[in-house]
Design brief:
The chain is of the alpha/beta class. The chain has a seven-stranded mixed beta sheet with strand order 3-2-1-4-7-6-8, with helices on both faces. Strands 5-10-9 form a three-stranded mixed beta sheet. Helix 1 runs parallel beside helix 2 and helix 1 crosses helix 9. The protein is globular, with a radius of gyration of 19 Å. Bound molecules: manganese (II) ion. Manganese (II) ion binds next to loops.
């Protein structure tokens, strides 16, 4: 059965290059393993994945399949020439823009769950598929808009009655029909190209400007930022989002917060459970952290 013939498969979309292969593996593994949909389609925009990674990801997805799921399909999509004019700033990869293309790259899909490649999914994404978007193009978790983000949004939205709400684009429920009919993705790519040097978080800023107040807010557990200074209960089922340049498959220093240490240990567990990146340069740190904690070592 393919996604064309199955009435309502759950479509999970991601995008990555090979530098994010471990992250892509954990996002897909954890999303599929915790999901109860009968048919799951994982659509990956290939922004430069090696043949080896592609082969391994097939194993990851097959390994992750839960007893509730009959079929898991893994598709690789090419971004084609859509992103030729976009530029890359700060630690963002070009793959960050790929979510903007999903309406075009998945022409037969009505709705998808977009997931970043720095996530650990601990909830059942079927709950996200069931969310009624109420005519909006997307649903996302409201993020923190610091002074720089507010200034940026004001630059474009001043006087429009913007409610000052700003979402994080790491987890999105996307109405792809609406994206297609309103050319939202194309407009967002053009926005990134035209305002590249002003943007702080390229695709996210573009979508927030274009869809200001035309999105619905998801419960914050679906995009819990794992960062020092944000005190919250990360054990609630949902999505843990490891933002910033230091990704959890690379972190070599013990985190300052116990809750982050536990989150990274859970992440590493998923990385090893996915059973394919064991030879990637990842050190099992959870045990080291735990030992340091017990012995109170620096
Ligand atoms: Mn992210």
């Amino acid at each position: 059965m393919t996604y064309e013939t199955c009435p309502e498969p759950l479509v999970i979309a991601c995008a990555a290059d090979d530098a994010y292969a471990p992250g892509l593996a954990v996002t897909l593994y954890s999303a599929v393993a915790n999901c109860t949909a009968e048919t799951v389609v994982c659509a990956v925009v290939d922004m430069g994945l090696s043949d080896r990674t592609v082969k391994r990801l097939h194993t990851v997805v097959a390994t992750a399949r839960s007893p509730h799921t009959a079929t898991v399909e893994l598709l690789f999509l090419s971004s084609g020439t859509y992103l030729q004019g976009t530029q890359v700033y700060r630690h963002f990869a070009k793959a960050a823009y790929a979510r903007l293309l999903l309406g075009r790259l998945l022409p037969d899909v009505k709705k998808c769950i977009y997931l970043d490649c720095d996530l650990l999914v601990t909830g059942n994404v079927v709950e996200l598929q069931a969310v009624d978007l109420g005519g909006n193009a997307l649903a996302a978790v409201e993020g923190r808009a610091g002074p720089k983000v507010r200034d940026l949004m004001n630059r474009f939205l001043e006087g429009t009655g913007w409610s000052r709400k700003y979402f994080n684009s790491g987890v999105l429920i996307m109405d792809l029909e609406r994206f297609r009919s309103n050319d939202i993705g194309e407009q967002a790519v053009a926005f990134c190209e035209n305002h590249a040097s002003h943007l702080l978080f390229p695709d996210q800023d573009a979508l927030n400007v274009l869809l200001s107040d035309a999105w619905i807010a998801l419960d914050s557990r679906w995009n819990m930022i794992v960062k020092h200074g944000r005190n919250r209960d990360l054990s609630v089922p949902g999505v843990l989002h490891f933002v910033g340049a230091k990704k959890p498959w690379k972190v070599a220093r013990r985190p300052k917060d116990l809750e982050i240490e536990i989150a990274i240990a859970r992440y590493r567990d998923a990385l090893f459970a996915s059973a394919i990146f064991a030879k990637h340069k990842v050190i099992v740190l959870s045990a080291i952290f735990a030992t340091q904690r017990v012995l109170d070592l620096p």
